[in-house]
Amino acid sequence: MRKFIVKIFSFSIIPFILILVPTLLYMKRDVYADFKQYNNYSWKYSFQQLGDLSTKKLLKAPNTKYNSFIFGSSRTTGVYACYLQQKIPNAHFFHYANWNESIGGMDEKLKLLDTLGYNISNVIIYLDTDNTFENDGACHPSDHYLLTQKSERDYMLSHYKSFFSSLNADKIKILCGMPVSGGIYPNWESDPVTNDCKHFCTDSIIATYDDVLHDEKFIHKMDSLKANGYLYKRSATQQYRPQQISAGEERMLLSMKKTFEKHNTSYYIVIAPLYDQEKFAPADMAILQRCFGSHLYDFSGINAITNNVYNYPDRKHFQPYISKMILDSIITDKSSVRVQMTKR
Amino acid sequence: MLFNSIDFAIFLPIVFGLYWLANNKLKLQNILLLVASYFFYACWDWRFMFLLIFSTLLDYYTGLKMSDTNSAGMKKFWFWLSISVNLGFLGVFKYYNFFVTSFADGLSQLGLHVNPWTIKIILPIGISFYTFHGLSYVIDIYKDRIKAEKNFIDYALFVSFFPLLVAGPIERATHLLPQIQRERHFNYAKAVDGLRQILWGLFKKIVIADNCAEYANQIFNHSATYSGSTLVLGALFFTFQIYADFSGYSDIALGTARLFGIELLRNFAYPYFSRDIAEFWRRWHISLSSWFRDYLYIPLGGSRGGTWMKVRNTFIIFIVSGFWHGAAWTFIVWGALNAVYFLPLLLTNNNRNNLETVAQGKTFPTFREFFSILLTFGLTVLAWIFFRAADIHHAISYIAGIFKPSLFSIPEVKPLTVILLVILFILIEWRGREQPYAIADFGLQWKKPLRYALYYAIIFAIIWFGGKEQEFIYFQF
């Protein structure tokens, strides 16, 4: 028996060291912000989940700090909380978006806010025809454990496994404390108060919100993307997505509506104007209309926004001024705001 | 707790340490193992502990009653009481909703519409396995093959021994109880061998099964959108997933038991190298197929009697085996399909060929053996489609989807790393096919640094190539 124990120890020394050292470095670098609290949480590394970071930030704040929230996927990065606070009196917005946000993720975030005792006075939601209703609305597995209902231990372990399971040169550099750049290091600073992505809320940001990029360099880039097929030609007739809202997802929609009714929320559900110009299936639209009625605003499909390819810096996202246009049209009783064309 | 979890990695050394600290104290060792086993089971769902304990008490008590009585009538009474209660629980938890909804569907075909009263019930984990442990014990007592175990701790440990509690192998009282009853002394070589088998089981489960599962699920869940060649790949991924998952679990169970000085029944013997379906069923889930052979097939008459009897018994055994796996028509069709495969061999008295390992002592099989292996493998893959599909309609449309011109196109899903890992896995299994498990003798003649390097490489592969964690497939049975 002693020989067996000694054998186990001697065998385990090398793997132990090989596992212990990277684990200690992982804890020291704290790439997912799991071990320490920070003054601000920003999307530094591409493997972090925005919703997870936002939840950590929210949990640090008192529940009286915010009464208004923005939900949705990366398409909401063009929704500026600071601008909304100018439009809606007494609104204190928190940008609570997530990468590839699902309807279940949004529902869980609303439930969390309700549990934490927040007043939910105003809500802006972007629904995407291409990914909001996937996987039966399941939360993103990397989302915060208070949303995914995992234990805190499993949540931290899943971060650990995820980091080391796709180890590459950049991650090794991060472990060693060396600087990294490129795709793995987007380093988007978030506003410390509103949590707006990629910018701090300043007057100049609001002043340039409806700037339209229209210089020659931009036009040339977009024309090249069209020419090489990246910005593909869309169909001339209206296309519809296959039916996608499951029974479980419909229950999530009703749960969200119940939360809104409980808080007497002013809420705006926007179907985002995506490049593919596809609309929800009629059956899905009927579900959404049944749930949200006059709170639902459909900007998807073939229209003036989606027809203009210059509104899209890539196939998945649209320019921030489009979001401003949407917000102005839905919040100011549909009075349209002229978009200013300014040269950069 | 899963075998491939940190919880188990903490649980096992603690139990191992305490167990061997109680060396030469058999009673204490058995109590410790029993407590550990109940703790292990309670980690899954403590509510079903009561069912496990009740089933254990029932079989213990009825076993004693059968042994004590001289009356054939009373013996029969206790026997049928145990059988009916055990099967009753299994029937309610596992099959009630299936029968009720199938009955309602059948009536609706006749134009009668009823609202089936289904119950929302969770299937207690391991119920199919520990129920069959208990049944084999009771049947063996009834048939006077063994005497009832008077020591409750020993009997309870036989039913609940944690390595085999949730997914087998299905042990026999004649094999396991004597090991529980006699003293066990630490054996260094067996313990090291046990660790080696655990390592190989983890490799099969985490590297092969979990990686194959990701693509099998993707292809099966969206089968209507994929080409024929992709569907073939999906079926192959599932074929290796289910083998690596279940045999990996069995390897971990056997290796773990060996750490405690207990030998469990072998459950897999390289079934995908079988040259015919009869050989496949002698090598796949051996503990279950031998259970059905001994407790159902032979009592029904086996392969004695006329052709009709043979056909009937073969279909019964395979369909019941399919049904054991789950309450769904797909499992029944899977079983029936295997019966159709098996019958020609039985009726032509060719079901006892190929009793030895293929290409024994040689490196390569003959051309004929290779062709036979491929044919048997192909038939098995076809049957697995029913096993995996959501329903019969899905299985049929999946198979129909394969036999289209797109069968000859390049698959849309081609995870090269996983394919290479599967090929490597097949080669290692082929090399080790005459051993109890593939790496049993791998590197034993090498110098220690090289041997350790091999084990480190397997551990590294488990960490690096570990797929997205999936639950063991056979937990659902």
Automatic annotation (TrEMBL), chain A:
Give the transmembrane region(s).
6-27
Q: Which UniProt keywords apply?
A: Membrane, Transmembrane, Transmembrane helix
Instruction: State the protein's name.
Output: Uncharacterized protein
TrEMBL record, chain B:
**Organism lineage string:** Bacteria, Pseudomonadati, Bacteroidota, Chitinophagia, Chitinophagales
Question: Keywords in UniProt for this one?
Answer: Acyltransferase, Cell membrane, Membrane, Transferase, Transmembrane, Transmembrane helix
Q: Which biological process terms from the Gene Ontology are attached to this UniProt entry?
A: alginic acid biosynthetic process
Query: Out of the domains of life, which is the source?
Result: Bacteria
The primary site where this protein sits is membrane
Q: Which organism is it from?
A: Chitinophaga rupis
A Pfam family name for this chain? MBOAT
Protein family according to the UniProt entry: Belongs to the membrane-bound acyltransferase family.
Q: Where are the transmembrane segments?
A: 6-22, 31-57, 77-96, 117-139, 370-387, 413-430, 450-467
InterPro entries recorded? Ac/AlaTfrase_AlgI/DltB, AlgI, MB_O-acyltransferase, MBOAT_fam
* Any GO molecular function: acyltransferase activity
Q: Where in the cell is it found?
A: Cell membrane
Protein known as:
D-alanyl-lipoteichoic acid acyltransferase DltB, MBOAT superfamily
Q: Identify one Gene Ontology CC term for this UniProt entry.
A: plasma membrane
User: Which segment of the chain is annotated as a signal peptide?
Assistant: none
Is-annotated flag, keyword Transmembrane helix? yes
Q: How does it sit in the membrane?
A: Multi-pass membrane protein
Q: Does the keyword DNA repair apply?
A: no
